Amino acid sequence: EAAPWGAKDPPELDGEDRALFEEFESEIGRLASRVDPAHPEDLEDAGRLDGQTLAGWLGERGASPTLLAAVEALIAIGSSTVPTREMSLLGYAAKLAAGAAPTGLRLRFVGGPTALAARLAGELEGRVTLGAAVTGFEQNGDTVAVRLAEGAVLEAERVVVAVPLTLQRTLRLDPPLPEPRQRALAEARYGDASKEAALFAEAPGVEPAATPEGAIYHSDENPRILIRFAGAEAAGLPSDFSRLAGAEPRAVAGVRWSSEPWSRGTYLILGPGHLTTWWRRLADPLGRIHFAGAECSTLPSYMEGAVRAGEDAAAEILEAS
Predict the structure, then answer these.
(1) What pLDDT digit, counting tens, does each position of 88-108 carry?
(2) Would you say the pTM of this structure is higher than 0.85?
(3) Cis upstream peptide for 175 (omega within 30°)
(4) What single string gives the DSSP state of each residue in 80-100?
(5) Of 119, 146, 142, nearest in space to 134 by CA
């Protein structure tokens, strides 16, 4: 989760709006500098800070509608995919303390993340079963039964569950989940986002921008492709590439994460109270069932977080074996 277009701050802010935005940035920075990313819940006054939201902090200081809309475009619509009124102030600061890049990517894959998935799939050919939906797990002594939707049952010594909480809600687990995880499954908020790409005959003369309709930027691989990433409440807005570029696109393709059956949303964004109640318990194993995925790391909405959580789960299994 990082703004893809390289914007550093909201455009066209001046006077009191600019001053308050800079105060907002400074406050987030100071808070992040005080947070231990491994244990943000230990920070003094963590409960109050976790209960505060980004929009709430600005609203308490008299932020104008212009400033609120600009911050929404930069953080929620262009990156986090959840409205700032639903984002924990402490959760956001803790993620920055852990190394998140809130505006601007630090690293891109040549060919996009799909290239990484394809490389991994190639190395695991013949060892991965595709098209087999899991419906639940049952622990029986030294094994775990993995039940598939088609009716088959597989057995394993240990299981790693690394799917979004939106999908974990559909799984049946035996023994039953502990209270913190039950609460997490009930309360966890994943964002909504759509991403569309439009191909033009010539490179459109459109500058990258964070707008109320989404983040607009060019493809790194083909300047004729104009991309719109729209998160939070802008995800459902129709695109208007013709107006943006002043020309009709040759083709448009897109995807909306909340409509994808194997994700049902973008990534976990901590809301008020989530960090200090259940977030740090997401990696707790349940007997021989272990949990991974970005949600179980200090970077709950980043691919880097998923890698860290996978390494932690592997180490946990090796230690227990």
Answers:
(1) 999 999 999 998 876 555 677
(2) yes
(3) yes
(4) I-S-GGGSBHHHHHHHHHTT-
(5) 146
